[in-house]
Amino acid sequence: MNIDKKARKFFSTIILFGVAGCSMSGSVTTELKDAYPLVEAPTDFQSPHEALRLYYEEIRARNLIQKMRKHQLNSEEVAFLSAAAYLTQHQVQIEGQLQISKSIAVEPGHSYTFQLQSFCVHAGKERPLVNDGFRVGPVMGKAPEWLPKILEGYKAASIPQERAQVLIWALLSGARFDDLTAQQRSDLLIVYPKAPLHFGIRVIEDESQSIISQFVPLEGRRWSSRLEELRGLLRDSQKTYEEISSMLAPVSSRRDPISMGWVKTPEGFFARVKSLGGYSSVQVDVYNPATQGLTFRPSELLAIPAQGQRLAISANVLSSLQQTFRDITDALINFRAGQKLSEAEQELI
């Protein structure tokens, strides 16, 4: 069959999309140009985390917990600790709501700060530095069909973050359902029961590929080979997570973080994201300047850097407040009870 160059290119493209198009696996395509617009920092934003950090520093500096246990507090110190306990309780409650519901209503004029687990969705790029900034944007490509399901389901399914990350890398590489390891298939079925149907079967596709390979340009075959090497790496049961991570998320050669500032989302709230170190955790600041409540759903947002890896954000909180909250409230309970209560009594109260 004689096919000229243009027809060959067109035909091969149509065939490739016809064979692979049924699968939802594939890369995130969001670029910095797709991010939401930068805005001036909201003047009324007050980070709850920063306020609590200052409270805790003062509590430690004034040795208030120990003084309370010895019943040596004055009324001003009791009021100070009570305010810290109230603010901490409020933050813990909001974090709990986000983790359970995967979204939260952000009230008009209110400030929010969350430290959340995040995931690399840009394998091969350098991982972020501590305090690297990101602009928020939409999740584009095929990933919106499946990525939020993993982000919102892995914690409840007791899938460790590292295992979820390798699964995400595998699906971003274009892996079909039967390309995955037995553990990955099991994990994916928990959060996405229709995975075999939606991600396709490689064996079936390989039969079609063998027929049409003569029409695929050489560069296309090279790219396919590189993706297969990546999928092979992610299937290698002998590789540790640290080994895989060092190859797919290399340490940056930069020394200084790059700040990005605030953006305004189409929903109308302001957001600012920075890395807490590497690709596995971020801090998200949110402020709602509107007159009505808006919804913040982390899995629908993508963190896009000036340089390095794009990150997907989960609703799973990395709370550093729980133990401090317990220390303060237990001390307050015992102080007001006038005696040392048992663990069971403190838990009940």
Largest sheet: 6 strands, antiparallel, barrel
Cα distance spanning the termini: 82 Å
Beta-strand fraction estimate: 5-15%
Structural class: alpha+beta
Rounded radius of gyration (Å): 25 Å
Extract low-pLDDT stretches.
6-21, 204-221
Number of strands: 10
Helix amount? 40-55%
Which series of helices and strands comes N to C? HEHHHEEEHHHHHHHEEEEEEHH
Q: How does the overall form come out from the CA principal axes?
A: globular
The overall pLDDT, averaged over residues, is: 82
SS field, number of helical segments: 13
Sequence of strands across the biggest β-sheet: 3-7-6-4-9-10
Explain the layout of strands and helices.
Layout: H1 5-20, E1 38-39, H2 48-61, H3 64-69, H4 75-101, E2 104-106, E3 111-120, E4 133-138, H5 147-153, H6 161-172, H7 182-191, H8 195-199, H9 202-212, H10 218-235, H11 241-248, E5 262-264, E6 270-275, E7 281-287, E8 294-296, E9 301-304, E10 311-317, H12 322-337, H13 343-348
Antiparallel strand pairs: 1-5, 2-8, 3-7, 3-10, 4-6, 4-9, 5-6, 6-7, 9-10
Helix pairs in contact: 1-9, 2-4, 4-12, 6-10
